[in-house]
Amino acid sequence: xxxxxxxxxxxxxxxxxxxxxxxxxxxxxxxxxxxxxxxxxxxxxxxxxxxxxxxxxxxxxxxxxxxxxxxxxxxxxxxxxxxxxxxxxxxxxxxxxxxxxxxxxxxxxxxxxxxxxxxxxxxxxxxxxxxxxxxxxxxxxxxxxxxxxxxxxxxxxxxxxxxxxxxxxxxxxxxxxxxxxxxxxxxxxxxxxxxxxxxxxxxxxxxxxxxxxxxxxxxxxxxxxxxxxxxxxxxxxxxxxxxxxxxxxxxxxxxxxxxxxxxxxxxxxxxxxxxxxxxxxxxxxxxxxxxx
Length: 292
Ligand code: CP
Hints:
CATH topology of the largest domain: Rossmann fold
Pathway: Pyrimidine metabolism; UMP biosynthesis via de novo pathway; (S)-dihydroorotate from bicarbonate: step 2/3
Bound molecules: phosphoric acid mono(formamide)ester
Family: Belongs to the aspartate/ornithine carbamoyltransferase superfamily. ATCase family.
Shape: globular
Binding site for L-aspartate: 79, 162, 211
Largest sheet: 4 strands, parallel
Number of domains: 2
Subunit structure: Heterododecamer (2C3:3R2) of six catalytic PyrB chains organized as two trimers (C3), and six regulatory PyrI chains organized as three dimers (R2).
Strand content: 5-15%
Keywords: Pyrimidine biosynthesis, Transferase
Radius of gyration: 19 Å
CATH superfamily of the largest domain: Aspartate/ornithine carbamoyltransferase
CATH class of the largest domain: Alpha Beta
Number of helices: 10
Order of helices and strands: HEHEHEHEHEHEHEHHEH
Helix content: 25-40%
């Protein structure tokens, strides 16, 4: 039984094995498989989610597991119950694994030392979002066949982005060249990664745009949406300067017309909706790994 708290500590071989297993699940013709029959998985979201929450639920159901969906907004968290007590409560009821999203950093790692069932990080603060990065790697591998030597630009609000961090750790292990591009007040200087200008960032094989995370900004970090778009957005004009073989990615949800123009979201170079599709086999592989 194995938790997945982040990709920083995960071996390259383990990452490749999850990607390979996801490819196996994607190729299966039947929609539901009973490998996790009789297992109970709880999805515990202390922060909002659409993609991660529902693709975990689809993945769990496709593996035949029983699914419990916990939502902090309608739970005893509203009466002051702690995250630890919530997870411990579900463990005592007999869940076999837990998927957790939460805001504070460090809490998940601490809970994992006190809980016996495997825990999967569905995003914790700006620390890690391992399954998002795994589905991103899977999407890139499907496109290019090989991650070694691939040039990946991650553009936008890297300071607040757990997606940028998990992608950085994993892509570096697999031999890709990762660079960040961010406004001066949204950089991540504590990370060992080169920050480059937007014109340089557009030359990459993968142009990954990040959402401006207004809910994590204290005070007015951006002047206006239009000002951000002008300086750091992937506009139709900027996209014309990308290489013809390059792809556009974004973890979503998307601020259309801010970090990416509306016309580009489903353009031929975009892999944004395929990323969401790839999230299901990746999460099947991760849940199976936790419970097998
Ligand atoms: N990409 C992602 O984590 O989306 P959600 O917040 O909707 O889960």
